[in-house]
Amino acid sequence: MNEKIELWFPTPIYYSDNVLGNEFKNKQETFLNHHYDTVRNDYMNVDTSHSLLDLNVHHLEKFQSVFDVIDQHVNTFAQKLGYRHKLKCETSWVNKSYKNDYLYPHVHSYALISGAYYIQSLKEDHIHFMKDIKDMKLLPTVNNDLNHRSISYSCVTDRIILFLSDTLHHTMKQKSDFKMTLSFNYK
């Protein structure tokens, strides 16, 4: 027999821990103590600074050194994916969430790479990625590298997670009392 199985159309997810290293505690306090104008609605069941009027946390001087580090991670990921131009942050916002909060499955439009940086979180909370919400095929008896439909990552404090902007993702009901996430889009 001369069969081959090839893996096409990958869904790459990049993550790194201890992103800010020794600077983390200082920067965490800066994020936690900053006043954000937030809203909550039925779609985004978290307190979010995401607004069509102001998506510019990355333009605030006190957060510039954090975005310098995020820029390095995003551009490393982009290079590994075959993109050779330097990507720039287009939009950024903060989500504050509390016990039982969640985000519906969604994608980010008008960007190439999106991500989340966890300012404060517990590993019991997760971000979930899936290939296709409409996938209704029969479930396999044995899960393996050829049939994954979804994957989850712990929302660990000082962790960055990057993904292509059209990757479907969501969070389930939060277990911890409080989580703060910096979200962003690059193109």
Task: Please tell me about this protein's structure.
The structure is a single chain. This protein is α+β, with helices and mostly antiparallel strands and 187 residues long. The protein has a domain at 18-129 and 149-165. Helix content is 14%, strand content 32%. It contains two helices and eleven strands, in the order βαββαββββββββ. The strands form two sheets. The chain has a six-stranded antiparallel beta sheet with strand order 1-9-6-11-4-3.
Q: Nutshell version of this structure?
A:
The chain is α+β, with helices and mostly antiparallel strands.
Q: In oligomeric terms, what are we looking at?
A: single chain
Number of strands: 11
* Alpha carbon gyration radius: 17 Å
Major beta sheet, specifics?
6 strands, antiparallel
Shape: globular
End-to-end Cα distance, whole Å, is 45 Å
Helix count equals: 2
The H/E string reads: EHEEHEEEEEEEE
Average of per-residue pLDDT values: 94
How much of the sequence is in beta strands? 25-35%
Spatial order of strands in the largest sheet: 1-9-6-11-4-3
Helix proportion range: 10-25%
Low-confidence stretches: none
Q: Would you tell me the structural class of the helices and strands?
A: alpha+beta
